[in-house]
């Protein structure tokens, strides 16, 4: 099996969010779940994608963290199709990606990869004072202080393939100051049945939002770029009035980790439904063969 290490959502090595990509030999089925998890542990990245080719423009991708399989991973999807193009498996064009979360349309144009998100869903929101205090306290902030700084938006659970809590904060300094209690955040994530917390601020004039993402329940304390979460944030913005149908959005992530990432999205929404596409670039860090 051929493998690649890809820095996704960046055009610079050591930027963005790294992912492992494993391309199965033609005609071969996926290894056992145990082997996939062990491979993900060995590669030591937050997600590793395993790609099975089904046809010229059709693939089945499964995603594994070092702990378990997840339904979908945005940055590993971007990394997968960047690796497929880099390795000569595909050229530019439109592709279908079968995932546990559903079928996703992918477009590749040069170094840019865009993917359709799953149908966006608002699952719930957090409005009770004690639960708001709990969430912000676990994240190392004080909710009353955030309100005093002018924060009006409320946290909502949104999914475009994976559910996350969209957690607004007042400004860039507050985003920088987040220091979660990771054990408490894992417990909270399990209780709310979400992957983790996607914290964001609208402060700053160089992007739609600056963001940080935390998913310790899945052994990911913080991620430098998360496609699905920023797809969900695009929908959150639409629901809360700071993103409109037809908008192109840009999310800056990974700054605290010194792995700056740029995630782009596009939304089309009307009374008949909503389509969100998320994407960016990917650059190869390493490649080789896995001897299994």
- Computed Rg: 18 Å
Largest sheet properties = 8 strands, mixed, barrel
Q: Mind telling me the CATH class of the largest domain?
A: Alpha Beta
Instruction: Tally the beta strands.
Output: 17
| % residues in beta strands | 35-45%
Notes on the protein architecture:
By secondary structure, this protein is of the alpha+beta class. The protein is built from seven helices and 17 strands. It has an eight-stranded mixed beta barrel. Helix 1 links the parallel strand 2 (17-23) and strand 3. The longest helix is centred in the N-terminal third of the chain and has 13 residues, at 74-86. It is globular, with a radius of gyration of 18 Å. The N and C termini lie close together (8 Å). The model has no long low-confidence stretch (mean pLDDT 95).
List the helices and strands and how they pair.
Elements (H helix, E strand, L loop, with lengths): L1 E7 L8 E7 L9 H11 L4 E8 L2 E7 L4 E2 L3 H13 L6 E7 L2 E8 L2 E5 L4 E5 L3 H10 L4 H6 L7 E4 L3 E6 L3 H6 L4 H11 L3 E6 L7 E7 L4 E4 L3 H13 L8 E6 L7 E10 L2 E17 L3
Parallel strand pairs: 2-3, 4-6, 11-12, 13-15
Antiparallel strand pairs: 1-2, 1-17, 3-4, 4-5, 6-7, 7-8, 8-17, 9-10, 10-11, 12-13, 13-14, 15-16, 16-17
């Amino acid at each position: 099996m051929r493998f690649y290490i890809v820095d996704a959502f960046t055009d610079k090595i050591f930027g963005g969010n790294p992912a492992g990509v494993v391309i199965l030999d033609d005609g071969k089925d996926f290894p056992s779940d145990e082997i996939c998890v062990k491979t993900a542990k060995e590669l030591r990245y937050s997600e590793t994608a395993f790609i099975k080719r089904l046809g010229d423009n059709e693939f089945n991708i499964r995603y594994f963290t070092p702990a378990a399989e997840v339904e979908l991973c945005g940055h590993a999807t971007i990394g997968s199709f960047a690796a497929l193009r880099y390795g000569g498996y595909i050229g530019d064009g439109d592709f279908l990606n079968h995932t546990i979360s559903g079928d996703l349309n992918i477009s590749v144009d040069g170094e840019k990869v865009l993917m359709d998100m799953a149908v966006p869903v608002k699952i719930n929101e957090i409005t009770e004072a004690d639960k708001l205090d709990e969430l912000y306290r676990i994240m190392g902030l004080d909710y009353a202080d955030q309100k005093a700084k002018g924060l009006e938006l409320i946290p909502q659970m949104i999914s475009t393939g994976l559910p996350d809590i969209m957690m607004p904060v007042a400004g860039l300094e507050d985003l920088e100051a987040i220091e979660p209690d990771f054990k408490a955040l894992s417990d909270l994530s399990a209780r709310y049945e979400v992957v983790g917390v996607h914290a964001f601020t609208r402060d700053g004039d160089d992007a739609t939002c600056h963001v940080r993402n935390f998913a310790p329940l899945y052994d990911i304390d913080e991620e430098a770029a998360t496609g699905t979460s920023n797809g969900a944030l695009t929908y959150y913005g639409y629901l809360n009035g700071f993103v409109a149908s037809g908008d192109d959005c840009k999310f800056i992530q990974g700054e605290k980790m010194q792995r700056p990432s740029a995630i782009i999205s596009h939304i089309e929404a009307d009374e008949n439904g909503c389509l969100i596409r998320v994407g960016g670039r990917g650059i190869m860090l390493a490649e080789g063969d896995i001897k299994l």
